[in-house]
């Protein structure tokens, strides 16, 4: 019989746009004893987690809970629960994950209308609002932070316009929650979906989300139709309106997370511990302080990259604070650099997708990975690897430029 070694993954400095390094406190929480899902101790943990999701998403919504599954499960739960067949859904696309929203919406039977922006830019909100007025969709689905391009879309004006026009506004906040400001209520977002494996520094496996009474009304209406189908005389047309997923049905999930605890699935106990601890750490640091920390390390990272003589990709006016995109120099194999960084320095950065594949590197500075130690390490390692690849860079300046940011106003070394 084949024998397997004990699991011993290598220690990495993970500077990708996700997953990132899990906070050690989160990993410790995952190793604590398992409780039964209806144990009062465990339901208290569920309630605390819901409260922390509300605080992190800046919402007063009653509905705020996680979906068991990676970020995509949360996106799919929101869309499959809200989209009825033949609903018109508008998806403004400015990167890879806008296309994902299109695919999910199409699988839900929606009539999908799209508008596209050049990768590296975002939409002027008025462009989107004008298109909403022309298309008259039931739902607008949009990405807040697009990790494939390192851009962040302003949402406030679009959310207000959707509310005025009685359109549901669904937002993918997977890359931004816990790392930069997400104002669910103020921006009039009807459903917002986050992820654990990015700025929350929790392993992938849960998707915290929240939705308001407008979204709930549509979900509940569909659920009522589903109950009515038990009548053998129910019209055949009604069958098309039921929520097609059982596992991702937000109506049933809502009941499971309600005080009645209507059984729907077996909760992922250890992942819930992880999410609770990740959210606790976020709120202990303070949202505004956490956002400022991400901005500071972004500033140091950008200063180092530019001092090295490398160029940043994309419109700087809409840069996503937690992802920095770097144009790969001419004549350099981006994949070769990534491989050498991992093999020789245990540093992981990422390439990109679609039209940007082989054109840019993406460096994440998210959550627990967002630290001075990691920024200085990735800059020094990248410089060394580029020198080995004979890239035309300015050696010796990257780390010093980052230190200029970190030591600003600090006279300890004068």
Keywords:
414 residues; alpha/beta; Aspartate Aminotransferase, domain 2; Aspartate Aminotransferase, domain 1; 7-stranded mixed beta sheet
Describe what this molecule looks like in 3D.
With 414 residues, this protein is of the alpha/beta class. It folds into two domains: 23-282, Type I PLP-dependent aspartate aminotransferase-like (Major domain) (Aspartate Aminotransferase, domain 2); 287-406, Aspartate Aminotransferase, domain 1 (Alpha-Beta Complex), CATH 3.90.1150.10. It has 13 helices and 13 strands. It has helices spanning 24-30, 40-57, 71-82, 96-107, 125-135, 156-164, 213-228, 250-257, 269-285, 287-307, 334-345, 372-388, 398-406, and strands spanning 13-14, 63-68, 88-93, 111-116, 139-143, 145-146, 151-152, 168-172, 191-193, 206-211, 323-327, 347-348, 360-364. The strands form four sheets. It has a seven-stranded mixed β-sheet with strand order 2-10-9-8-5-3-4, with helices on both faces. Helix 2 (40-57) crosses helix 9 (269-285), helix 11 (334-345) packs across helix 12 and helix 12 runs antiparallel to helix 13. The model has no long low-confidence stretch (mean pLDDT 95).
**Coarse shape:** globular
Give the beta-strand count: 13
Discrete helix count: 13
How much helix, percentage-wise, in residues?
40-55%
CATH superfamily of the largest domain: Type I PLP-dependent aspartate aminotransferase-like (Major domain)
**For the terminal residues, how far apart are their CA atoms?**
64 Å
Average predicted confidence as pLDDT: 95
The helix/strand series, from N terminus to C terminus, equals: EHHEHEHEHEEEHEEEHHHHEHEEHH
- Coarse structural class: alpha/beta
CATH level-3 fold name of the largest domain:
Aspartate Aminotransferase, domain 2
Q: Please name the CATH architecture of the largest domain.
A: 3-Layer(aba) Sandwich
- Using the coordinates above, name the CATH class of the largest domain: Alpha Beta
Largest sheet properties = 7 strands, mixed
Total tally of structural domains? 2
